[in-house]
Design a protein that fits this description.
Blueprint: E1 4-9, H1 15-23, E2 27-32, E3 37-38, E4 45-46, H2 49-56, E5 61-62, H3 69-78, E6 82-86, E7 104-108, E8 116-117, H4 120-126, E9 131-138, E10 148-155, H5 162-185, E11 200-201, H6 217-226, E12 233-237, E13 240-250, E14 265-267, E15 272-280, E16 286-287, H7 288-294
Parallel strand pairs: 1-2, 1-6, 2-5, 6-7, 8-11
Antiparallel strand pairs: 3-4, 7-9, 9-10, 12-13, 13-15, 14-15, 15-16
Helix pairs in contact: 1-5, 4-6
Length: 303
């Protein structure tokens, strides 16, 4: 059975799902993405990853600033069987939700009800969790609280960064969507979430990246992983900001924030971390070995 589907998504994370839909028997009648943004520098207009990919497939793309009455009438006129939403980045107004026969279906990057909200991947790594996944759910009026069709789990490896895990979950979403649509067509039941178990994955703020050397080494390493590649974890030394991109646990000890050797090992609350990849503000990312050739943060310094 072929469905008429509208797809709504914006970042690279959503691309494998759109690609899977395009290759399927289903008919993509329209694609929505956030409107193009101006660059921070200059006047270049940047289309989203989904807009670029959809246009490469010759799909119709709509990029309204908001889902207003014009878009409501447009979607009513198309009368889709299903609207699939993957990291679209806009709230779907209530009056849209009942238009499709099978509703608005969302792919969320966590095992709901855990980590509802904007930053589920980062928050799961930051908390040192060993498992995450994606959840196929129906959108309702409350954020990420709709009934669940199915969840697909994935192990979080000790070395996984936000970027690594985002790519893995993106591929998992692409591989899972067509079987999930088949379940919907067959009349599979959506189950209510256990709302009492919900946790909130608040949006990451840049200032969260500042490292507190009084924290435990494991927590600091998890933060570094969770904020790589964006927005990055950092410390300041002599009023210069440095981002840490990769670090490992060290059993050396010292006072929190103390550089305890000439290889940029920094003491924490319980032991230390060995910095393996670092970036001085305004400079490129370097291995610590390369960095220490021309940039001295000597043993005995306090960060």
């Amino acid at each position: 059975m072929s469905l008429k589907i509208i797809f709504m998504g914006t970042p690279k994370f959503a691309v494998p799902t759109l690609e899977a839909l395009h290759k399927s028997e289903h008919l993509l009648v329209s694609t929505y993405s956030q409107n193009p943004k101006k660059s921070n520098r200059g006047q270049k207009i940047n289309k989203s990853e989904i807009q670029q990919f959809a246009e490469s497939l010759k799909l119709e793309v709509r990029t309204p600033e908001k889902l207003d009455d014009k878009e409501l009438e447009y979607i009513k006129k198309i009368s889709p069987d299903l609207v699939l939403v993957v990291a679209y980045g806009k709230i779907i107004p209530k009056q849209f939700l009942d238009i499709p026969k099978y509703g608005f279906i969302n792919i969320h990057a966590s095992l709901l009800p855990k980590w509802r909200g904007a930053a589920p991947i980062q928050r799961s790594i930051m908390q040192g969790e060993e498992e995450t996944g994606i959840t196929i759910m129906k959108i309702n009026e409350k954020l990420d609280s709709g009934p669940i069709l199915k969840s697909f789990s994935l192990k979080i490896l000790p070395e996984d960064t936000f970027g690594d895990l985002q790519n893995k979950l993106s591929e998992l979403a692409g591989n899972s969507i067509i079987p999930s649509i088949n379940l919907i067509i067959s009349g599979a039941k959506f189950n209510e979430q256990i709302h009492a178990e919900a946790t909130n994955a608040e949006k990451i703020k840049k200032e969260e990246g500042k490292i507190n050397w009084n924290d435990a080494s494991k927590n600091i390493i998890n933060k570094i992983r969770a904020l790589n590649p964006s927005p990055g974890s950092f410390f300041e030394f002599k009023k210069i900001r440095y981002k840490i991109w990769r670090a490992e646990l060290s059993l050396k000890t010292g006072k929190p924030g103390e550089v305890v050797d000439d290889k940029l090992t920094v003491a924490t609350q319980d032991c230390a971390i060995s910095i393996k990849e670092i970036q001085r503000e305004g400079k490129k990312k370097l291995s610590t070995k390369e960095f220490l050739i021309g940039n001295q943060i000597p043993a005995g310094s306090f960060l």
